[in-house]
């Protein structure tokens, strides 16, 4: 009988556990850690990047302030999923509008126009998963690094919009006119 024995994980920097092989990593991300960026009305914290998942996925936590959200756009390379943790998020997808509440899951396949907005009076907190990974490069390039995670998100500036328009095609992201 042929059996394989895995080596025990070793502790790496930042509380992560990693096996010796780059392809079988175990990762622990303490709450409040991970790179954080300010987007239009939201704070995005990277939980797991493509570099850490072998390109399989990118996972982020977003906190969207009332009135915050994304303009219409299309992902041409990845599927996007949301798991709502707090608040209500209005999602427009393919000409339909839905409201996602805590515990709800929303799957948005690549190639379909969508946007989301916090139309409520409390913050929205959600986990966002993109598969495969790669879109995190767009956020790191376009969004502002959040040095104070308790600050109010900045309003979208002309500079942020210009960076987004320039970087979008590089990441297979098509930004559409506002609805």
What does this structure look like?
- The chain is mostly beta strands.
- The protein has one domain (31-148, 156-168): Jelly Rolls, CATH 2.60.120.10.
- Helix content is 9%, strand content 39%.
- The protein has 2 helices and 15 strands.
- A hairpin with a 2-residue loop joins strand 4 (36-39) and strand 5.
- The longest helix has 10 residues, at 158-167.
- It starts with 9 loop residues before the first strand and ends with a strand.
- Mean pLDDT is 87; it is low at 1-20.
Task: Please give a quick description of this structure.
This protein is mainly beta. It is built from 2 helices and 15 strands.
Lateral strand order in the biggest sheet: 11-8-13-6-5-4-14
Number of strands: 15
Number of continuous helical runs: 2
Mean pLDDT: 87
- Fraction of helical residues: under 10%
Report the end-to-end length measured between terminal Cα atoms. 62 Å
Structural domain count: 1
Classification by helices and strands: mainly beta
What is the class in the CATH system?
Answer: Mainly Beta
Secondary structure blueprint with pairings:
Layout: E1 10-11, E2 17-18, E3 25-26, E4 36-39, E5 42-48, E6 58-64, E7 69-75, E8 79-86, E9 89-93, E10 96-100, E11 105-108, E12 114-117, E13 124-131, H1 136-142, E14 144-145, H2 158-167, E15 173-175
